[in-house]
Amino acid sequence: QLLLCIFTFAMVLVPEAKDQGKAAKGRRRGPARAPTAAPALTWAPDDPYTTMADYERSIQDVARQLKNSSEPGDTKCQVNLRLWRSNRRSLSPWAYSINHDAARIPADIPEARCLCTGCINPFTMQEDRTMASIPIYSRLPVRRLLCQGPDEVGHKPSGKKCHKKYQMVMETIAVGCTCIF
């Protein structure tokens, strides 16, 4: 993704800057030519979006791996440089716990929790409380079991108070931790 951003920057912004610089120096005679837009990137993935079922299955797989993990629970505020996982190599390390909600699909979502109050000082490898570890949140699409009143459009009135129905909603989940001053 980083390479794609750099490539896009180079293709779109750099040629425009060159054109504007030449026009400002007066090297061109006659009316200034309007800057032309760089050609759009022609590469696009075949299927940029996965199905909701694939998305939910991938979250369930991660939650299952977390539940079945043989590693001891992460509770210490320390960096482990031998592990390849970024959550334990971070200066603001975090561990995952399962956020369970039976009225949601997927019911189990891995959620990050910060292991330090402060941050790890990279020189001493000890916790430094002059900085703070805070969670990073992301909004994830989930299907939630919601009630709809019987008087809403498309629903026939009945003796029940509401009709249970899954609806797509965005839920805020902690996905990692970072260090702030």
Please give a structural write-up.
The protein is α+β, with helices and mostly antiparallel strands and 181 residues long. It has a domain at 52-148 and 164-180: Cystine Knot Cytokines, subunit B (Ribbon). The protein is built from three helices and seven strands. The strands form three sheets. Strands 2-6-7 form a three-stranded antiparallel sheet, with no helix packed on it. A two-stranded antiparallel sheet has the order 1-3. The two termini are 28 Å apart. Mean pLDDT is 75; it is low at 7-27 and 34-45.
Q: What's this model, at a glance?
A:
The chain is an alpha+beta fold and 181 residues long. It has helices spanning 2-25, 52-67, 86-89; strands spanning 94-100, 104-105, 108-114, 119-120, 127-128, 132-148, 163-180.
Give a count of the beta strands, DSSP E runs of length 2 or more: 7
Residue-averaged pLDDT:
75
Q: How much β-strand is present in the residues?
A: 25-35%
Main-sheet strand order equals: 2-6-7
